[in-house]
Amino acid sequence: MPDQLVVAAVLVDDLVRPTRALAARRTRPPELAGRWELPGGKVEPGEDPVDALRRELAEELAVEVEVGEELVSPGEALVGWPLTAGLVMRVWWCAISSGEAHVGEAHDALAWVDASSINDLAWLTPDLPLVDAVVARLAPVAPPPPPGTLGS
């Protein structure tokens, strides 16, 4: 039986120099509820993966996105990131082009996280290699300038 393809987005604040990514906390199934993931979902039969990604983000978060480059699984000649038995996930860098992300039925919380806080969340175990790849790409957040230096 072929693997079921799942798509997900590393939804970032800026495709050129991302500093933050959006994490979503699952509501179901019960064994995954309360764990964090990258938003996305399953590809329907005959559906283009990028079209599926756009559809899933519109359904789950009420946003339209600009799709950037694919986050390719390192080191292996695989198309996608292996998840659980029978599931493979392809992931793209994306930025919101229209709308504001809202929780829906699949998630009860959203969090914009930077490289220093992303590992504070309780991620789904299969997503941990992805989280490491995201951290490697996120630019550090610059500290605010000292008081009195703006507009001087």
UniProtKB/TrEMBL annotation:
GO biological process: DNA repair; DNA replication
Cofactor: Mg(2+)
InterPro entries: MutT-like, Nudix_hydrolase, NUDIX_hydrolase-like_dom_sf, NUDIX_hydrolase_dom
Catalytic activity: 8-oxo-dGTP + H2O = 8-oxo-dGMP + diphosphate + H(+)
Entry EC number(s): 3.6.1.55
Residue ranges of every copy of the Nudix hydrolase domain listed in the record: 2-135
KW Nucleotidyltransferase (keyword) present: no
Signal peptide, first to last residue: none
Pfam families: NUDIX
Keywords: DNA damage, DNA repair, DNA replication, Hydrolase, Magnesium, Metal-binding, Mutator protein
Highest taxon of the lineage: Bacteria
The family this protein is said to belong to: Belongs to the Nudix hydrolase family.
Organism, as annotated: Microlunatus flavus
Gene Ontology MF terms: 8-oxo-7,8-dihydrodeoxyguanosine triphosphate pyrophosphatase activity; 8-oxo-7,8-dihydroguanosine triphosphate pyrophosphatase activity; 8-oxo-dGDP phosphatase activity; 8-oxo-GDP phosphatase activity; metal ion binding
Name of the protein this chain belongs to: 8-oxo-dGTP diphosphatase
SUPFAM superfamilies the UniProt entry points to: Nudix
